[in-house]
Amino acid sequence: MLSLIDSHCHLADVKLRDEVEGVLARADGVGVRRMLSVGAIGPIENDRQTVEIAERHANVFAAVGVHPHDAKDATEARFAELRELARSKKVVAIGESGLDFFYKHSPPEAQEASLRRHLELAAELDHPIVIHCRDAERRLVEIVREVGMPPRGGVIHCFTGDSAAAREFVALGFHISFSGILTFRNAEKIREAAPVVPADRVMVETDAPYLAPEPYRGKRNEPAFVVKTFEALARARRCDPATLSAQVVANSSRLLRLPPS
Hints:
Layout: E1 4-9, H1 20-29, E2 32-38, H2 44-56, E3 60-64, H3 76-85, E4 91-100, H4 108-125, E5 129-134, H5 137-147, E6 154-156, H6 163-172, E7 174-178, H7 188-193, E8 202-204, H8 226-237, H9 241-256
Parallel strand pairs: 1-2, 2-3, 3-4, 4-5, 5-6, 6-7, 7-8
Helix pairs in contact: 2-3, 4-5, 5-6
């Protein structure tokens, strides 16, 4: 059995938080030894619950932030609360932040202002940043170049771009994380981008409870299902699964500065 890390899930989501123990047990049963649980979605209480879950489980780590959908609520008071939550030793990243110009649940200018503050906060706290990007690659690159990458780097989670976008993100210093979308029939451009990412920058995730990979598409996602995305990633990169497993674990552990397991 290969070991894996789910580099992005949402264990405090209402669809998962009441059965975290079972979710973690099923993940461990298929080799998913660690995971990064991300708050950010909705009110600050989601971040608090995310940190609490991480503090109760040795194999769970946390990221706190404000999702671009909620960027209109990214006040200075909210950032002060995030800074306080990030004092926990289990918080290892800031985010997810970024830009989503597909849904635009928050105005683009609010998203951009929030992204800038997240980049600054990640640099201040010496954490990597977790980035959500949809239909906004060009503007994201411009803002990161203006503000600067946090010294600890970052990851483009749930990558949905093409090969050119992957190369540009890598050149900026980002890691690239692939989600269950990689397994979807219409995701050929993402599969074509997978081999472009250098071996020391590739990661894998579920984004659970969202975006379940085939053959679970349409069902509630959970960290155990990252195995299916990993298998698709190994095929797309045409590499030995054992080698890729060791690489994605090393990459996630290094970026997030996870302690030895």
